[in-house]
Amino acid sequence: MKMNQRKKGPKLSKKSILRNHNPKNNSHKDEESNLSSQNKLKKLEEFFLQGREEFLNLFKRCPVALAYTNIDGIILQINHCFEELTGFTEDGVKGNSLVYCLRPEEASYFDPNYSRTSFETNIYTKDNCAVQVLGNRKYNKIDNRLAGMIFSFQDISFLRKERRIKQVLYRISQSVHSELPLPEIYAQAQEQLKKVIIAENFYIALWDSDTKQLHFPYYTDEAAGDNEIFIQRYCSSQSIFHYILNNVKPVLMDFQRYRKMLSYGYIEPWDVMTNTHLWLAVPIKDGQKAIGVLALQSYNNARQYSEKDIDLLEFVAEQLSTAIFRKSVEQKKINT
Questions:
Q1: 8 A C-beta contact, residue 124 and residue 98
Q2: pTM of the model
Q3: All domains of the chain in start order, with CATH
Q4: Could you give phi then psi for residue 59, rounded to 5 degrees?
Q5: Which helix (H) or strand (E) holds 204?
Q6: CA-CA distances (angstroms) from residue 261 to 42, 150, 250, 315?
């Protein structure tokens, strides 16, 4: 039997064997391997830094207020919208607790173990102003390990205020169409308004076409109290009430506008008015004619009201006009 013969490979010369085992050649290969590894590591680092830079750019430019914290809620980064919403700067809050900075009404919402990731609460700005926000908490995980949290905040103050305004206007409308007497309707209108606007100094003035006099069937005034003589000054002079009755237009009057209207002769001085005073008044109309005035006054804050509040007051004045007209018709039926 023929024995299986092992195939012979190419003969290696002594020189080739020495060349393959030459320490210098092995060292050269190791250097190439090290350089290749270093290049790969460098590329990975560049890729990581590029990705991180892109993330930071997106984070900073996001149109929603964002704060990035570690798992303990310590602020690591915030974006520009967060600064605009809260008044804090990144240097001012970095390294501090998010809860400590914002002082939310419900601190538990910021706990990583809290069941809900979306929540509504009040936070406080650097200037100690309350802001109603819709908050959201997202987790940053690396290899299934919690590495940090991203909080987003949206100012929803205007949404809540809109809801309250709708409720207030609905309740005022309900009272107007109820069987309540006018004084109670006036009082309820003021109480409802207080829920959405400061209305401590509240005036309803009506024009009596028979006596050609202005009278106040309902008012509350911090300075006047129950002193009717105090309120009579608005009746006897060409005050803001007479101006609105004549012009049938709303007026937002601060000290500067008061002085200008005096200089033009539109009104006469009826009171001591300073740069802290502010009036907001609208006509109570019957068709195109003013039959009265609904007004608010601030004695100590010249920025208490704005043009945005005119629509609200005009709606209330319209409802009061409906109540006044309806009660007038009812009274005429009784008299006849």
A1: no
A2: 0.63
A3: 44-155 (3.30.450.20), 159-335 (3.30.450.40)
A4: -60, -50
A5: strand 202-208
A6: 74, 54, 14, 26
Q: What does the DSSP assignment read for 136-200?
A: EEEEEEETTEEEEEEEEEEE-HHHHHHHHHHHHHHHHHHHHTSS--HHHHHHHHHHHHTTTS--S
Per-residue pLDDT tens listing for the chain (336 residues): 444 455 555 555 555 544 555 555 555 555 555 556 566 566 555 555 555 667 677 888 889 999 999 999 999 999 999 999 999 999 999 999 999 999 999 999 999 889 899 999 999 999 999 999 999 999 988 888 888 999 999 999 888 888 889 999 999 999 999 989 999 999 999 999 999 999 999 999 999 988 888 999 999 998 877 777 778 888 876 889 999 999 999 999 999 999 999 898 888 887 778 899 999 999 999 989 999 999 999 999 999 999 989 999 999 999 999 999 998 888 777 777
Structure tokens at 165: 């305004």
